[in-house]
Amino acid sequence: LTSSEKHRIVERVIRRINERIPVAYLTNKAWFCGHEFYVDERVLVPRSPIGELINNHFAGLISQQPKYILDMCTGSGCIAIACAYAFPDAEVDAVDISPDALAVAEHNIEEHGLIHHVTPIRSDLFRDLPKVQYDLIVTNPPYVDAEDMSDLPNEYRHEPELGLASGTDGLKLTRRILGNAPDYLSDDGVLICEVGNSMVHLMEQYPDVPFTWLEFDNGGDGVFMLTKAQLLAAREHFNIYKD
């Protein structure tokens, strides 16, 4: 290493210790599903257990290869891009409300050479989307409840609050997703949604909804699956949250 390179490393270590800045923001690099992504403080650091599902091609969860995939709340675009690698014949839409996040996603899409396979779209969830019938909707929306937000470690304070907070119980956006998703799923379509610790609130408030809570070999929880048929059957619970 040159003296300037050594100096940069020492500088980053000092900032990591003193400011509690995540390493991914200091290096502008994060890994997800074996792929490298550019990240900065406009997006969350990729860490979703959904990556394990993508690596396994959603085995046992989908009946056929998806042709149309939606990554809702895409952030850095890592889930959308990983899905494009896993299903090279699929068209993937990467949706986010944040123009800053979409700028990062667009950069990553270009870096991975996937501009013809992954389309970034700015939308407030489904509000500005055409009625495409997706075979697979994957979403890692903001889901941190108010109590957990107040107790977040300092490292998480560097991440955009827009990508974390979702109301008192952490379900503000999830309810809207559940209300709108069936209109955007094909007949055999599946919704995969991460809600983290807010799974407790979801199960308490909607005991009649048949959430399938997925298990992971590499750690993680709070991810559920629902089919279009199940979403339609549960529609009475979520109709008021439709856009």
UniProtKB/TrEMBL annotation:
Pfam families reported in the protein's UniProt record: MTS
Gene Ontology biological process: methylation
Domain (Methyltransferase small) ranges: 65-148
Assigned GO CC terms: cytosol; ribosome
Keywords on record: Methyltransferase, Ribonucleoprotein, Ribosomal protein, S-adenosyl-L-methionine, Transferase
Record InterPro entries: DNA_methylase_N6_adenine_CS, HemK-like, Ribosome_uL3_MTase, SAM-dependent_MTases_sf, Small_mtfrase_dom
PROSITE patterns: N6_MTASE (PS00092)
Origin: domain of life: Bacteria
Molecular function GO terms recorded: nucleic acid binding; protein-glutamine N-methyltransferase activity
Protein name: 50S ribosomal protein L3 N(5)-glutamine methyltransferase
